[in-house]
Amino acid sequence: MKPNEIALVVFDLAGTLLDFGCQAPVGAFVEAFRQRGVTVSLREARGPMGLHKKDHIRAMLRMDAVAEKWKAATQRDWTETDVEALYGLVTPMQVAAAKVHGDLVPQALDCFHSMKAMNLKIAVSTGYFREAAEICFEALERQGFTPDFRIGADEVPAGRPAPWMIFRCMEALNVYPPTAVVKVGDTVVDVHDGLNAGVWSLAVVDSSSEMGLSEAEFTTVTPEDRLVRRSVIRSRFTTSGAHAVLDDLSSLPSTILDINRGAFTPS
Questions:
Q1: 105, 117, 151, 249: least buried by Cβ within 10 Å?
Q2: Biggest distance spanned by C-alpha atoms of the chain
Q3: Pairing relation of β-strands 149-152 and 200-204?
């Protein structure tokens, strides 16, 4: 991509700005399937993270292992009726979890102030449905992170990896071309979302759903293990096409300055 003066940063929400390790969504998916007699692993529940939550359920059911467990438990293949039923179970659970897991990741507020000092516009997008999204947006603003625009997957024709939320952010804040925009997320779906929009697509590692650890758990990981985990996740993001992979948000402002100077080297 040719450098453009960056004018807009579009952040994902859970796992990127708040809810270190993206804890709120995953437990709800595991519990919803359990209530239908199907045991899914945390890895299976995390796999499609970043999608609209109903699309997330479909993606889980399309996994061979989950589909087999579903058929063993119900004696039939899953249907769209099952998707709706699971979504009905997930929704109140995720609303409740969003109220608990609303703390900003450690570097988010400093990053926000640095970017505002750079005169950047800031938007937030999420795969959460409206009720859970509003809880998270309120948590952001209560802690001093006040974006110029915010949008959820319910407000566009299709959620990630479709680029419509990013395009809506660009339209609302009057920023173009796409090379003047940076998207920051914590999942492979986020990376694809940015690439499909033609913007700079960056990923964060430490607080990510890919890492999957709470902040307390992350602090107990040994330096050696942390390096190994970061390397595996970094490779996953790079293979997915991310232009840059950051350990955390503290290096985002300097990465944007590098893009603006034409000194940026993709990961």
A1: 117
A2: 60
A3: unpaired
Whether 13 contacts 136, CB under 8 Å: yes
**Domain chopping of the chain, boundaries:** 8-22+104-261, 23-100
CA–CA separation, 6 and 200 (whole Å): 9
* CATH architecture designation of domain 23-100: Orthogonal Bundle (1.10)
Nearest in space to 15 (alpha carbons), one of 234, 187, 136, 141:
187
pLDDT tens figures, 104-162? 999 999 999 999 999 999 999 998 888 989 999 999 999 999 999 999 999 999 989 99
- CATH number for the segment(s) 8-22+104-261: 3.40.50.1000
Q: 110: which residues sit within 8 A by CB, 6+ positions away?
A: 249, 250
Each residue's pLDDT tens digit, 162-211: 999 999 999 999 999 999 999 999 999 999 999 999 999 999 999 999 99
This prediction has a pTM of: 0.87
What are the tokens at 130?
Answer: 């409206």
Collapsed DSSP state (helix, strand, coil) of residue 149: strand
Report, as residue numbers or ranges, the catalytic residues.
12, 53
